[in-house]
Structures are given as C-alpha cells and as structure tokens.
Specification:
The complex is a heterotetramer of chains A (330), B (338), C (325) and D (304).
Chain B (H helix, E strand, L loop, with lengths): L5 E12 L2 E13 L4 E5 L6 H7 L8 E10 L2 E2 L5 H7 L4 E4 L13 H12 L4 H15 L15 H13 L5 E5 L7 H18 L2 E6 L2 H7 L2 E6 L2 E7 H6 L4 H9 L48 E4 L2 E3 L7 H9 L9
Parallel strand pairs in B: 3-8, 3-9, 6-7, 7-8
Antiparallel strand pairs in B: 1-2, 1-4, 4-5, 9-10, 10-12, 11-12
Helix pairs in contact in B: 3-4, 4-5, 9-10
Chain C lengths: L1 H30 L15 H10 L6 H13 L13 H36 L4 H14 L3 H15 L18 H5 L2 H18 L1 H15 L2 H8 L4 H38 L5 H10 L3 H29 L1 H4 L2
Chain D lengths: L13 H10 L8 H18 L1 H4 L37 H37 L1 H16 L2 H11 L5 H10 L1 H16 L2 H8 L4 H37 L10 H10 L2 H4 L2 H22 L2 H5 L6
Classes of the chains: A alpha/beta (330), B alpha/beta (338), C mainly alpha (325), D mainly alpha (304).
Chain lengths: 330, 338, 325, 304
C-alpha cells in the first residue's frame, strides 16, 4: 500500500441535495433544498480503513449511500477505481456491485423475513451468475469467515429464528461473499446489545486483517470508530470538519467541534470530567444551515470571518482541518 | 443513613402470555436515597424498563405486580388503592420516556400539555400555570415563546427537555427516566445528563435512570443496580461497583465497553445470549454464559449478599470476587472453546 | 408557508381532474354508438331549433372544435336544452341539486354521529361479546344493497304500518311559496325520514369501523400511556387525548363519504321517487334525454371532485403537523 | 407460519419456492368469521354450478295453476312452489338459484380485473416513482373524480345491455382504490432495508419486484379482490334494478326490479323481494369476513 498507486476511492466536492416541498414548489424552483452532503472531498488508499464520524444529520450515511450507489451524487464526483460511480449502468454497474458492498445498520430489517438463510446468501451469487454447484461451498466459506459456528445448521432457518448478533454476521457474510474490494459499514452494531457488539466488531477487524479489504466505518460513537479504524473523518452538517489519524484526533482534536465531540463522550469509570462542554446549545438544522462555516453559530471561537466565508481545508502535519483558526497562515 | 425515599423488597412482575405467566422481574430489592440518582443497568429484555414503569402502577394490560413491596415515603405503593396511587402520580412520582416524540400529544401545543398537568393535577389557575410553564421552560433551557409550538417542531434534544419540564411540573420527589438519552447524539446527551444532575443538586429530586450504557451510569449516577434476565445481580455505590465489580456479568459488561480515555484495549464479548424468560434455567440465570460457573450455580439460586458494606452481589463465588475479577480482565477467560 | 403550497398543489390537481372528467364526459357522449348528433338534437325538434342547436354547439364542426365550443358553453353554464322538458339543462339540474344535497348531508350527519360514538364504544369494549356481535353486524350493513333496504323500509313502515309516505317530497296538493318554506316544513322532513334512514343505515359502517380502529391504534400510543401516568382522569385521557386524535381521520373521511354517498343516491332516490339529481340522471338516460343526463352526471361528478378536495384541505387544516412547519 | 426446516444440504426445489410464495396468502383458518365466510362462498359456488339440478322450474317459464290460470303471486308452499311465484307467474325459488350463477360470474371476473389492474398500477407507481408514479396517480385521481354508479348507468345506456357492462365499468374505474393502497404499500416495501440490500447485491429491478415486492403485495391484492366481488354484485344488482341489466340473464337485481315494478311492496309479498336481498348480503359480507382486513379495506389510512 504505497503512496504512488492511485487511490481506490475518491470523492471530489461530492454533493447530495434533496428538494423538499411539493412538486408544485419544485416546478416554481422555489423548493427549499436539504443539503445532506455539501461538497465532501477525501481519498481512500487500497487496504485503508476510515471512520466517518458525526452526529445524526451530518451526512455520513448519505455519503456512504453515494459510495455504494444507493443514491446518485447530485453534484461533484464520486469515483471508485477511476470510474465515476454515478454514471455506471448495465454491465459496468453489475461489476461495480460485486466489488463494492454495504453492511446495513439494522440486522432485524436487512433480511427478507420470507427468505431462508441459504436464499439470502445465494442472492448475490445468483446475481453474479456464479454456477449453482459452487454456491454451497462459497456460502459455507463466507459463514466461516464471519465466525458463525457450524454453518450448516443455519442454512434452512429463517431470520426471525436468529439473534441480533447472528443476524448481523449473516448480513456481513452476504456483503463479503463475492469477495468485494471495498466495503461500507453503516453503524453495524448500534442496534445490538453491548455484550454482543464486541463479537461483531472483532469479526470486522479479523476480516480486515485477513482480507486487507478497504473499508469505511460510519458511526456516531467515537470509541467504536477508534476500535476499528486507523483514520477518522469528522463531519458536521454535510461537510468535513477534520480528517486525520484516529489516535491523534482522540488525543488532540484541533477543530472546535471535534473538541466538543471528544469531550462529550462519557467513559465507563467514575473519575471523568463534568466540565461544561465548549459548545453553544442549538440544533444543526440541515434545511437552513448558517452562512460561511456551518458550525459558527455554536462555535465558542467563532469570529467575523466565519460568518462570511466557508473555511478551506488546511493540512497540519498528517491532519486536515476546515477552520479559519488554522487557514490564517496560508 | 437517612430513611430511604423508596425501598423495594422482592418486587416481582409477571406477564400473562396466553395461559402461561412469564416472570419478567423476580425478587428485585434495592433502595433509593432522597436526592440521589440510581442507575438501573442491564441489556435488552432484562426487565429494567418493566420494573421502572411498574413504580407508576401503570402497567401493560397483560402485566401485573406478582409480589413484593415498594415502600415510597413509608407507604407500600404495591398495595395502594387506585385512587390513592393516582394521588401520587406526577405529584410525587413523575416519568421521562425514552423517545419524547410520541409521548407528546401531536395535536396539542407543548404549552397546553404543560398547562394541562399544572391545572388538572396541580390545581393551579390558568395564569399561574402560564407563569409556571415559562419558569419550567427557562429552567430546561427552551425559549419561552416556543410554548405555542407543536411537538413535531422540536428536535430530539429539545423534546427531551420538554419531557423534563413536564416531569418537574409538580415538584415530584422521584423521577423515573427510561433511557432518556439513548436516542440522542453525544453532545445533546451530555447536556441532558447535566440537567439530570442539576435536578439532584438544585432541586433535591431523586432519579431512577434506566440505561444499558455503563458510561452514562459512570457519568451521572450515585448508585447502580445491575439486572440480568429479570433479577438484580449486583447493586452498590457507582465507583465501587464499576471499578471493583463483584459479579461476573458486571465484569463481562465492563470488558465489552470501549473506553475512550484509556489505551485502545481488546474488547471481549460475552458469548451466547440471555435465557428465554418464559422458561428460565434453574439456579443462577447467568450460569450458561459465566466463565466461572460451578455445579451449585446450575442448581440453587444465588442470593444478594454483602461484598463490602452496601455493595451487594448475587453470586455463589462472591468471596473469590477479587481473583475472579483479575481473571475476567483477560479475554481468553471469556473465549468459548470453538 | 408550507400550507399554501400544499393547498396550491391540491387546487391545481383538482382543476386537472375536473377538466379530465369533463373531457371524458364529452367523448363518452359523442363516441358512443348512435349518432353524435343524438347527444343534442331530438328528431322531433323543429328544423329552426335543430339549426339553432347545430350552430350553438358547432355540431357540424370537426370534433376538436366542438370540444372547445363545448368548453366555452360550459363556462357560461350552458349545458344545452333538455329534450323532454324543453328547458335549459343547467336550470333544471341546479333546481334539483338541493334535494340531493339535503338528503346526502342529513343522512351522513346522522350516520357519523351514531358511527363515532358506537365506534368509540366498540373500541372501549374490545374483546367483549359486544364486539364479537357488533362488528360482524356492522359489516353486514356495509354488504347491504341500499335500494333493497329502502324497499324493506317502505314495505314495513309505509305500506305496512302507514307511518311514512311512500315517496316524493311533499304531501299531494301541498303548496309552498318558496323552496325555503318547503325545506323547513314538517311535511318535507316527514317525507325524508325513510330515505335518510336507508342511507344512514348503510353509511354508518364507515365512520363506526374507522373510529373503532383509530381508537384502538391511538390507545396504544405512548402519549395516551403517558396521560395515564400523569394521573389524568379517564375522561381526560379517553376524550381529550385518544378520541381527539382518533377523530382526525374520521372528520376527513366525512368529505369523501359525501362523494361516495352522492353516487349511491341514484338508486335510493329512484326507490323513494325523491326528485334529486340521481333520479333525474336515471330518468334522463331511460328517456334518452342525453343533454339532461350529461348535465346531471357532470353536476354529480363536480360534487364528488369538490368533496375530494375538501377532504384534503380538511386533513391539512385539522392536523397541526401539516399546517405548522 | 414458516414451514418445517428444509433438510440440510437439499436446496429447495421449484415447488417449495412456489408454495412459499403462495404461502404468503395466509387464509386465516383459525378465525371463526373467516370460516363462516368460506362456508358461504362454498354454498354459493355449489348453488351456481348445480343451479339446473337445484332449481325446481325454469326461472323464466310462466307457470299455470291446475285451473289453467297464471300462477300469479302465490304464497310460499302453495302448489309446491317453495318460495311462491311472481306476479307474472314465475317460480321465485328457481330465479334465486339461477341468480347465484350470474352473481358469482360477475363478481369473480370483476374482482380479478380490479385486483389485477390495481396491483400492477400500484406496484409500478410505487416502485419506480418519478413521473410514472405522477401520471398513474393523477389517473387514479381522475378515476376517483368519476362517480361510479352514474358512470355505469351511462355506459349501460349506450352499450347493449349485458352483464359484462358492470365488469368493464369496474375495470375502467374501480381499480383506483386498490391501486392507491398497493402503491403506498409498495412505497414502504421499496424503502425496506432488505430491498436496498438486494439492490446493493446486484439484483435487477425486475428481480427485486418479483422476489421481494410481489410476495408481500399478494395478500393485499387478494384482500381487495374479495371486496371487489362484493362491490360487483351490489353494482350489478343496482343496475338491473334500474332497468339497465341484461334482460336474458336472471339476476337478483332483476328480481328486485321485477318485484318493485309489480307493487310487491304494497302487496306485502316479502317472500318475493326479501330473499334476494338476504343472499346479496350473505355473499358480499362473506368477502369481508374472509379477508378480515375489513378495517384496512374500508378506509385505507387515507394517505395520498
């Protein structure tokens, strides 16, 4: 994984805007627009695992959906292995589907209740036109990869007969069965009990270690992101605020929002600070984000330039920060 | 030790499913001191919400209190008549639900729902209720002009603040909060938890906080009650219980929780899943998943006994808690032979 | 602001639907078998009349021009001449409209008042014997042909007991100088009793089952449980919170029910020889008086479409989640 | 109601997959009301098939008494006429039995048409959305704007009277209710996580509709189909009552029109006009009882 070969995944000012208001409003062009993703730029090397961290409504899930082409970008470019993902059709799209997969958040909803586990895992194989003879063997191999006990006993069973942890492993097995090169996991453990979460997270780490697959892990929980990803991108109201090695961000967050985020995470032992958070109250409203830097209305260190102009990314050692406090030097 | 505000003795709650009774909570025993926050911790299905909700005596249609006592300010609310219990509701015991969204009536303004409680339950006049509502909104940090807004116009965090204002309306002695911050983002969660701490410090209100997140317990609770499969397995002061747990389940929970403050250690899951409460295993219900299980664990039910002062645990090997705790740290202890 | 775009959108949609129905009506009456002229000209009209109508409706023009003339006339309220009554269709249709509307609204108000209370009661008595018998019984009223019910009531209460008249709106020979005098006379209401009862029995099923199902859904909502935890009285919980929310969709369904009901009047008015639009349409079609049939059909369709619009606006007006953005 | 565990190793054959798809139409046999509904249907089907054997006389034949006078308005039981005779001397019982045949014929065909068109429109509009959805739903709005019974009457007046007029009218207009409800259900299904999962794992739209959408929509289409049977029978009865029915086919509506026109009401010959009404109620309510979905049917959650 040297720095010279081209990035596997590249986003260049990617945007995902949703018009709201009736069709009439759209016709008149006066429809208000929700900017779920508002100009996101970052790259992923082959084999890298990156966390997309942020609160609900920050655009992390929408970014994930654009990467696996569940939604088409409405602006900018989303590239996988040099190809613009939004324009793929026909055979190219089918090939893309076998190389890029998504692990869904809610295992209880991610499987069709009427399908047996075999049907669930056979579906991607059918789509990739893999001969029926090979199905059995590949299904068993995928289930072994995600550490599902003796796989055979699950084959004929139905989703409602399995526990949350087992279901999430089946969801992962389905995503990995075609041996994709890039995988997006959207808060895969947030619906599971804590004691079961660790098991699924460990499977995720082992799969990455064993297959070297490139991965994006979407979450609102910094502690989980830290456990799985060596690099983290922090998002706020559809934009990136900070991007860098996870350990550095946890130890020394630069952007005021990241600082508040890190300070707000409670830890499971008694001696932790109860100091008030360095952030204003107020809820981010994606329908009408503040002008300039979208965090300025809650930022303790905001000054006049923040309301006028959106900050441009600044590189500080191995970190990128989008904040006027730092882009003064350029 | 002052007279406890609430004292639970062997409280049991059963659900009738068809002809069969499922015991969702069995023999729950713990105290709540005045002006203190007690964390009721456990995973899904352990009965923590059922237990907390039963203290309001508003149970699901097929649920009933099967036994035990709940002495609140000297009166056993289990035996109280419906009229007497209703007298306590909201005036003495209030409730904050998990997602305030559908716990607020969508067709009334937030202000009128606040006034409804103040006037019909608090006996206030219309104008007094108005000023009191504004006071409450200022206290929880919402602009008073938003009293005229409807529930759907509030964000998650703001709705939770409205729920707190509602709970405070009649200055209750006890507030039961059922996973109040679970659905919130981490920054708003912190602000709501700070407000719960203010309830205790400035208003001396006791809170029973139901949660599955021991980090939240560590941040805000004075004491903690750990539940597993319908039974209380450990209870004690928060600091002692979290740093020196005496029950294997609490030890296991600690390993499963990622800790941002310390180095990124290995997370260890507790293999297997909680028992089906319709026909629970005999003896200790954690036995099937416990790495320190012994023969007697599968036969006789462990009883809550003191490990250190008011730090109790229900485990046959409580005496060896010190050594078990060290062994529990290592992830190999929890690995189930493949 | 959002409310205005919602209403604006709906008005546009309604206008489109109205135009579409008018167009369908235009072609239906022209492309049907039989000569296109038959739609306007009665063979035994005098030649001058025939020529005058030919000009007025451009019946000799190509079809699409006829369409625009037809639309033009429509805007001026000119629906052509009734063959049978030698009278402008518009005049006759407007004169009969009140009879139909009074019948529809009075029967629906009766049905809804009964339905809402009975529905709430059945929801309250969930799982009891009352429900086991009540719900299937209500279902059979929905499965009942309205005209047969009318015949039954006529046979028993009119011909049998002689308590009520067999039809019409007034006693034979009774004169009323103004329509208003007629509508407010006991005689009129006495004549209206059986038809209203027939329509009410049939249509009470909708509000009843809707209210029952909504009440049961709402009773399971968190805010109802919270109301009980707040210690509010059962009355407050059930009426102020549960019923108020359950009533919302029932109110909007009233407007839709008017639309459905008015289509059913065609039959009940015929059984009770009640001079409304429904009976007029049937007689017009039976006597091949096409302009009158077209006019009556259009007026009924107008009411149906208007009521669909009212239902949407009512829904938007009643539910704060729509009006307050 | 998942079937027994498929034996390990054997992949389910074509039949099991088909059975499972049909299995999604779960007939609620455990529910007494549904059983009554099915029993009523069975009763009518037998009556319709064996009408010639069951009927005591030819329903149209004008009968004479022993003194060679027309057997007019005879009370039930007189001269062996089970339910008496009409004013024109026809056997009421035979007319009722033959009436079942046309009722079922119209009911089933109309129901099939309404359920089919409604489901196809609903699935296509719901799944593909965009302008397809817009057009189809505006079409549904127009159909909702057309008063149904008046439409059938005008249609019957222009086309030669035949029992198929009702079916055509229903197919043209009454698909609207099914269409709108199936569309909203398809919308919820399309956004279900497992449908998006199928899309991500490369399934084509067609495959997703076939394997994920249709099995879930099938029960609702069946539900609406059985309600449409009731509507068709009621409509046919009304049309025949107004004199626009098919003269050479005996139907309950025709019987009621005949009774009404022959002053059966004032003569109090209940035996003549009450039974056809009862039978219509029975067969229509059977449709409601079977589906049990009457709550959801009669007033879908009014979501546009």
């Amino acid at each position: 994984m040297n720095d010279t070969d081209p990035p596997l995944v590249r986003l260049d000012a990617a945007e995902l805007h949703f018009p709201i208001g009736g069709t009439l409003a759209q016709l008149r062009g006066s429809a208000t627009v929700v900017k779920a993703v508002d100009g996101v730029t970052f790259e992923l090397r082959r084999g890298e695992s990156v966390g997309l961290l942020g609160e609900s409504g920050c655009g992390k899930t929408s970014t994930g959906r654009m990467l696996v082409r569940l939604d088409k970008a409405t602006g900018g470019r989303v590239e996988f292995d040099g190809e613009d993902v939004s324009t793929l059709t026909g055979a190219a799209l089918k090939r893309f589907r076998s190389r890029v997969q998504l692990i869904f958040q809610n295992p209880f909803e991610a499987l069709n209740p009427r399908f047996s586990i075999r049907d669930v895992l056979a579906e991607p194989l059918d789509n990739a036109l893999i001969p029926k003879a090979e199905h059995e063997e590949r299904i068993l191999r995928a289930m072994a990869l995600v550490k599902l006990g003796d796989a055979a006993q699950f084959m004929g069973r139905y989703p409602h007969q399995l526990s949350g942890g087992q279901l999430q492993r089946i969801v992962m097995a389905r995503a990995l069965i075609l041996e994709p090169e890039f995988i997006v996991a959207d808060e895969p453990v947030s619906m599971l009990d804590v004691s079961v979460r660790a098991g699924v997270l460990n499977v995720f780490r082992e799969v990455r270690a064993k297959t070297g697959i490139t991965a994006i892990y979407i979450s609102h929980d910094l502690a989980l992101v830290r456990y799985v990803c060596e690099r983290t991108i922090v998002m706020y109201l559809g934009r990136i605020v900070e991007d860098g090695p996870t350990e550095d961000i946890v130890a020394n967050p630069l952007h005021p929002y990241t600082q508040a985020l890190v300070a707000a995470v409670p830890v499971p032992h008694p001696d932790q600070s109860h100091a008030p958070l360095p952030i204003g109250r107020g809820a981010p409203d994606p329908r009408n984000p503040p002008s300039g830097c979208t965090f300025r209305d809650r930022c303790p260190k905001a000054f006049d330039r923040c309301t006028v102009e959106a900050p441009s990314p600044t590189r500080i050692q191995n970190r990128i920060v989008h904040c006027h406090l730092f882009d003064l030097e350029t | 030790m002052t007279e406890p505000l609430l004292c639970l003795k062997d409280l049991s709650i059963a659900y009738r499913v068809g002809t069969h009774d499922t015991i969702a909570v069995e023999g729950a025993t713990f105290d709540v001191q005045p002006g203190s926050i007690v964390g009721l911790v456990g995973e899904s299905g352990c009965g923590k919400t059922t237990l907390a909700r039963s203290l309001t005596r508003v149970l699901a249609s097929n649920a009933r209190i099967a036994g035990g006592q709940a002495v609140f300010c000297g009166e056993d609310i289990v035996g109280l008549s419906e009229r007497a219990m209703n007298g306590l509701r909201w005036r003495e015991i209030a409730f904050i639900p998990q997602s305030a969204m559908n716990s607020l009536d969508p067709v009334y303004t937030v202000g009128s729902q606040l006034a409804e409680v103040l006037i019909r339950r608090g006996g206030m006049g219309r104008r007094a209720a108005r000023t009191r509502s504004e006071e409450l909104f200022e206290w929880v940090g919402i602009e008073t002009n938003r009293l005229g807004d409807y529930p759907h116009q509030f964000s998650g965090g703001m709705r939770q603040r409205v729920a707190i204002a509602l709970a405070l309306a009649l200055d209750p002695k006890l507030i039961i909060a059922d996973e109040p911050v679970t659905a919130l983002d981490v920054i708003v969660q912190r602000q709501i938890l700070d407000q719960l701490r203010e309830l205790r410090e400035r208003l001396g209100i006791s809170v029973i906080l139901v949660t599955h997140d021991i980090s939240v317990v560590a941040y805000v609770c004075d004491r903690v009650v750990v539940m597993y499969a319908g039974r209380v397995v450990e209870t004690g002061p928060m600091a002692a219980t979290l740093t020196a747990p005496a029950h294997p389940y609490t030890m296991g929970l600690r390993n499963a929780f990622p800790d941002l403050a310390s180095a990124a250690g290995e997370l260890t899951p507790i293999e297997g899943s909680p028992p089906d409460l319709a026909n629970p295993p005999p003896g200790c219900r954690f036995a099937p998943r416990c790495p320190f299980v012994e023969a007697r664990c599968q036969t006789d039910v462990p009883v809550l006994q003191s490990y250190e002062g008011d730090h109790l645990a229900a485990c046959h090997r409580i005496a060896e808690a010190e050594t078990l705790r060290k062994r529990a740290m290592a992830s190999e202890t929890w690995e189930v032979p493949a | 602001m959002k409310a205005i775009t919602v209403i604006g959108g709906r008005l546009l949609q309604t206008a489109f639907v109205l135009l579409a129905v008018i167009t369908i009506l235009f072609f239906m009456f022209r492309l049907m078998p039989g000569s296109p002229l038959a739609a306007y000209i009665d063979p035994n009209f005098t030649p001058e009349q025939q020529a005058e109508l030919m000009a007025r409706f451009g019946l000799d023009q190509p079809l699409w021009r006829q369409y625009f003339i037809y639309l033009g006339n429509l805007l001026q309220g000119d629906l052509g001449e009734s063959f049978f009554y030698r009278q402008p269709v518009a005049e006759r249709v407007l004169a009969l409209l009140p009879n139909t509307l009074i019948l529809t609204f009075s029967s629906l108000i009766l049905a809804y008042v009964f339905g809402v209370f009975a529905g709430a009661y059945l929801a309250w008595k969930r799982g009891s014997v009352v429900e086991q018998i009540g719900v299937p019984l209500v279902l059979t009223t929905r499965a009942m042909p309205e005209f047969w019910l009318g015949m039954l009531l006529l046979a028993v209460f009119s011909f049998g007991m002689g308590w009520f008249p067999a039809g019409g709106t007034r006693a034979p020979g009774a004169e009323y100088d103004t329509m208003w005098a007629l509508y407010t006379s006991a005689d009129f209401w006495w004549h209206m009793t059986l038809p209203v009862l027939t329509l009410a029995i049939y249509s009470q099923g909708l509000p009843l089952l809707l209210m029952r199902s909504n009440m049961m859904d709402v009773m399971r909502e968190d805010f109802v449980t919270m109301a009980r935890i707040k210690g509010l009285s059962t009355f407050t919980v059930v009426i102020r919170h549960a019923a108020r929310n359950a009533l919302l969709p029932v109110m909007t369904s009233f407007a839709i029910a008017v639309g459905y009901q008015i289509q059913g009047n065609v039959i009940v008015e015929t059984v009770f020889s009640w001079p409304g639009l429904g009976r007029e349409l049937v007689r017009a079609v039976q006597t091949a008086d096409y302009p009158l049939a077209q006019g009556a059909f259009l007026m009924i369709a107008l009411v149906v479409i208007l009521m669909n619009l009212v239902a949407d606006l009512l829904y938007a007006a009643l539910d704060p989640r729509v009006t307050h953005e | 109601m998942s079937d027994a565990l498929t034996p390990v190793g054997k992949s389910p054959g074509r039949f099991t997959r088909l059975r499972r798809a049909l299995g999604s139409i779960r007939l609620p046999l455990h529910d007494p009301l549904a059983i009554i509904g099915l029993a009523i249907y069975a009763f009518f089907i037998v009556m319709a098939i064996f009408a010639p054997q069951i009927a005591t006389h030819d329903p149209n034949e004008i009968l004479f008494t022993s003194e060679f006078t027309i057997a007019a308005d005879l009370r039930p039981g007189v001269d062996g006429y089970l339910l008496g005779t009409t004013t024109l001397g026809r056997d009421v019982f035979s007319q009722i039995v033959w009436g079942a045949r046309s009722a079922l014929l119209i009911g089933l065909t109309a129901a099939f048409m309404v359920a089919l068109i409604g489901s196809v429109v609903g699935v296509v509009a719901g799944y593909f959305g965009g302008w397809v959805d817009m057009i189809l739903m505006r079409l549904a709005d127009v159909a909702f704007g057309i008063p149904f019974l008046p439409f059938v009457i005008v249609l019957a007046a222009f086309l030669e009277p035949s029992i198929w007029n009702v079916v055509i009218a229903m197919a043209l207009v009454l698909w609207r209710d099914t269409g709108r409800v199936i569309r909203s259900q398809t919308l919820t299904l399309r956004n279900r996580v497992y449908v998006e999962a199928a899309r991500v794992s490369g399934s084509s739209d067609f495959k997703i509709i076939l394997r994920h959408i249709v099995p879930n929509v099938l029960p609702l289409s069946f539900l609406y189909g059985s309600i449409a049977i009731g509507w068709a029978i009621l409509t046919e009865a009304s049309i025949s009552f107004l004199g626009f029915g098919d003269p050479d086919s005996i139907s309950w509506g025709y019987m009621l029109q005949d009774a009404y026109a022959s002053q059966a009401l004032s003569k109090g010959s209940y035996y003549w006009f009450v039974p056809p009404g009862i039978l219509i109620i029975l067969i229509v309510s059977a449709g409601f009882f079977i589906t049990r979905g009457y709550e959801q049917i009669l007033f879908p959650k009014l979501d546009r």
